[in-house]
Design brief:
The complex is a heterodimer of chains A (235) and B (289). Chain A is of the alpha/beta class. Chain A has a domain of 126 residues: Rossmann fold. In chain A, 39% of the residues lie in helices and 26% in strands. In chain A, the strands form two sheets. A six-stranded mixed β-sheet of chain A has the order 6-7-8-3-9-10, with helices on both faces. A four-stranded antiparallel β-sheet of chain A has the order 2-1-4-5, with helices on one face. The longest helix of chain A is centred in the C-terminal third of the chain and has 16 residues. Chain A is globular, with a radius of gyration of 17 Å. Chain A starts with a strand and ends with a helix. With 289 residues, chain B is mainly alpha-helical. Chain B has one domain. Helices cover 74% and strands 3% of the residues of chain B. Chain B contains eleven helices and two strands. The N and C termini of chain B lie far apart (50 Å). The mean pLDDT of chain B is 92. The chains are: A alpha/beta (235), B mainly alpha (289). At the A-B interface, helix 2 and helix 3 of A face helix 6 and helix 7 of B.
Chain lengths: 235, 289
């Protein structure tokens, strides 16, 4: 098992955001977390990547306990997190953003090669590599954010709402690229409001409701589940 | 005419000093979200180091500058490690800590130099460059200007051309997103306050032969630094440098024609006007999210 989250609890002040969440990601897996606002999807990702810390529970990555480590150490172990709202460095150029994604690495040749890979996924970034991220559209900024995460050469990629606020064409483009990235061997945990898209892309799904896992299973199975259809797919 | 030319030159030299300490204040605020009220006292300690080592004990000027930079950098690093880091989640606590440091450093300076009249450091560089008959610039001032420009250019190179410089700007823009790239926030905070402290120490050392040195000289420094950073746009380093030069020219001219006190009052009025009319400053961008 690549990532194992077992029974984590997270509190913001006195408010419990996660009340015992467990999930597992195998090597090469594509997992999605769906659920409504406030269900704890983002908090789950933030806790895995070390931005938040659980008050109880364990997180194991590649056989090592990580729930107490700081975010910058977790990146080094091979987890990259594309945060909600993209959060690219707007005053920096596209290349500077990408190179910061490789901050933990020293292998110049490898960095160069991965930069080429990112530009292959997102040719538009190559055209605009010397432009400041501020001047880019929402979709392009999302590409920068994903590219930046890939530059750390992650084993596991966490994505928080990559489709938010983007035109359907761009969403399709990004979805296609996430599939490619996964096929190249990077495991993915995708948090999405757009449950239909998420369940189409992923192999396994977890449905989060008020800080707990309400349902889990094969993505195709969840797609046929009555509760999921009513509550999240609007069918 | 002569007076105008002379004032422009003096203004530019003054602008170099202003930029050195204002940029440090902006760096520390950007990366650590702390308004360092003790920044003027860091400059003061730089000047005191020159007085003590160079004027009192005969150490050559240039090595004394080196020591001033090191001493002030160390004070800055200690402030980060023992005051600002433990209070990081509470900007008000950091600010109050920095005010505490301000008073402590003033007392330290009084203990070292006494509270008598202001100290003077005789200029180590003698002579005056005669550009033409009516424009004469003392070599001491030329030296200060050149060193300021070299220091600011080095900083600019560091921030725009090196990976560590990008990391520093990234932390200033979005601390969490920076941590997600594997950037160690504590280390970057140390670098920011180290650089800010070094520049403050350098500014104090360069100013020492050109100004009156006393435990309260930091007061004018911090007022100037606030005016410059607000006019330039809080968080904008290039804005701070541009505003430093413009404000120094403005301050010099008002001082020459109307007097120094009025110049500072005008500066504060200018700051208030900028806050009302264009709160983002001349180079600032609106802070998003």
């Amino acid at each position: 098992m690549l990532l194992e989250v077992s029974n984590i609890h997270v509190h913001y002040g006195h408010v419990a955001a996660l009340k015992g969440i467990s999930l597992a990601v195998e090597e090469g897996d594509f997992v999605t977390l769906i659920g409504s606002n406030g269900a704890g999807k983002s908090t789950t990702l933030r806790t895995i990547s070390g931005l938040d810390h659980p008050s109880a529970g364990e997180i194991t990555f590649n056989g090592e306990r990580i729930e107490k480590l700081s975010a910058d150490k977790i990146v080094k172990m091979g987890i990259a997190h594309v945060p909600e709202g993209r959060r690219v460095f707007k005053d920096l150029t596209v290349s500077e953003n990408l190179l910061l994604g490789a901050f933990t690495r020293d292998d110049k040749a490898g960095i160069e090669k991965d930069m080429g890979k990112v530009f292959k996924h997102f040719p538009r970034l190559l055209e605009r590599r010397n432009q400041s991220a501020r001047t880019m559209s929402g979709g392009e900024q999302q590409m920068v954010a994903i590219g930046r995460a890939l530059m750390s050469k992650p084993k596991l990629l966490l994505l928080d709402e990559p489709s938010l606020g983007l035109a359907p064409v761009i969403v399709q483009e990004i979805a296609k690229i996430l599939g490619e990235i996964n096929r190249q061997g990077v495991s993915i945990v995708l948090v999405e409001q757009n449950a239909e898209l998420a369940l189409e892309l992923a192999r396994h799904g977890y449905v989060l409701e008020t800080g707990t896992v309400a349902l889990e299973g094969e993505a195709s199975g969840l797609m046929d589940n009555d509760h999921v259809r009513k509550a999240y797919l609007g069918i | 005419m002569e007076l105008i030319l002379q004032s422009i030159v003096n203004g530019l030299i003054q602008g170099g000093f202003f930029a050195l300490f204002a940029v440090g204040l902006v760096l520390i605020f950007g990366v650590m979200s702390v308004v360092n009220f003790a920044h003027g006292e860091l400059v003061m300690i730089g000047a005191y180091t020159i007085w003590l080592l160079h004027a009192q004990n005969g150490l050559a000027f240039i090595p004394a500058i080196g020591v001033a930079i090191i001493v002030v950098t160390i004070i800055g690093l200690l402030m980060e490690r023992f005051l600002f880091r433990p209070t990081r989640d509470d900007p008000l606590a950091g600010l109050i800590c920095s005010i505490g440091v301000l008073f402590i450093l003033q007392v330290v300076a009084t203990l070292i130099g006494g509270d008598g009249p202001s100290k003077q450091v005789p200029p180590p560089f003698h002579g005056t460059m005669v550009v033409f008959d009516s424009l004469r610039i003392p070599y001491q001032r030329i030296f200060s200007l050149v060193v300021s420009i070299v220091a600011l250019s080095t900083l600019w190179y560091f921030l725009t051309r090196t990976k560590l410089g990008w990391a520093l700007r990234a932390v200033a823009l979005d601390r969490e997103a920076a941590a997600l790239q594997g950037i160690n926030i504590n280390r970057i905070s140390m670098i920011a306050i180290g650089v800010g402290g070094a520049l403050a120490g350098l500014a104090g050392a360069l100013m020492a032969p050109l100004t009156n040195i006393n435990p309260h000289m930091g007061h004018n420094v911090i007022i100037t630094a606030f005016i410059v950073t607000i006019v330039g746009g809080v968080g904008s380093l290039s804005g701070a440098v541009i505003a430093a030069v413009l404000y120094a020219l403005f301050h010099t001219f008002v001082t020459v024609y109307f007097g120094g006190t009025l110049a500072t009052i005008c500066g504060l009025i200018l700051m208030v006007v900028v806050l009302i009319v264009k709160p983002t400053g001349i180079m600032g961008v609106r802070v998003s999210e």
